[in-house]
Amino acid sequence: IAGITQAPTSQILAAGRRMTLRCTQDMRHNAMYWYRQDLGLGLRLIHYSNTAGTTGKGEVPDGYSVSRANTDDFPLTLASAVPSQTSVYFCASSRTSGKSEQFFGPGTRLTVL
Amino acid sequence: GQNIDQPTEMTATEGAIVQINCTYQTSGFNGLFWYQQHAGEAPTFLSYNVLDGLEEKGRFSSFLSRSKGYSYLLLKELQMKDSASYLCAVTDSNYQLIWGAGTKLIIKP
Q1: Which value, to the nearest 10 degrees, does the dihedral of the CA atoms of residues B45, B47, B50, B53 take?
Q2: Inter-residue contact B97 to B34 (CB < 8 Å)
Q3: B2-61 residues touching A, CB cutoff 8 A
Q4: How far is CA B21 from the centre of its chain?
Q5: What residues does A62 pair with on adjacent strands?
Q6: What are A58-112's pLDDT values in tens digits?
Q7: pLDDT per residue over B58-75, tens digit each?
Q8: How far apart are CA A28 and CA B30, in angstroms?
Q9: A52 touches chain B (CB under 8 A)
Q10: What's the confidence (pLDDT) of residue B96?
Q11: Cα–Cα dist A72/A95, whole Å
């Protein structure tokens, strides 16, 4: 693989179910991010990781959790999905936090019914 | 609070020039990014400004005035493929990006 990948591409999920969105990068970037994008609201940061082993909360962290066990992977888990979590989710990575460009994965379109 | 303002939508003609403005109020400033996002796709990086002035890159240029909390993206010789949303984002004091809602640019023949 080259760059940053996400899985699944899209998913329809029943409310109350647990779901993990996967994100993997092969650029050896230190920082990784999860965003959600909703019409008219732009990108909103859910969680971030400045380096492997550390994570932080973004603007809209409630209902989501992340882990960063290694440099390459940064999964996002919805413990008990709710309809308001219907959105397009983007994973991104950058060489360092804040000063270098972010590279985005193709996105996961999630629908919670 | 932190706020980034961009026009919601702009229309321009193929071959023309268009300027997309961005104003920001953030807790600290460590740089401003512009990204392009085609419908249904991920954002891609266009430019980064950390000092005042104009950065030129081919048909695209980006300007920053830190004292005014203002930036613009200038697109020259517009092509139909430039139809996309353009996102302004500012790095705050915690080195996290604060994103504007984006400007949808429609190019007409």
Answers
A1: -170
A2: no
A3: 30-31, 33, 41-45, 48, 50
A4: 7
A5: none
A6: 999 999 999 999 999 999 999 999 999 999 999 999 998 878 899 999 999 999 9
A7: 999 999 999 999 999 999
A8: 23
A9: no
A10: 84
A11: 12
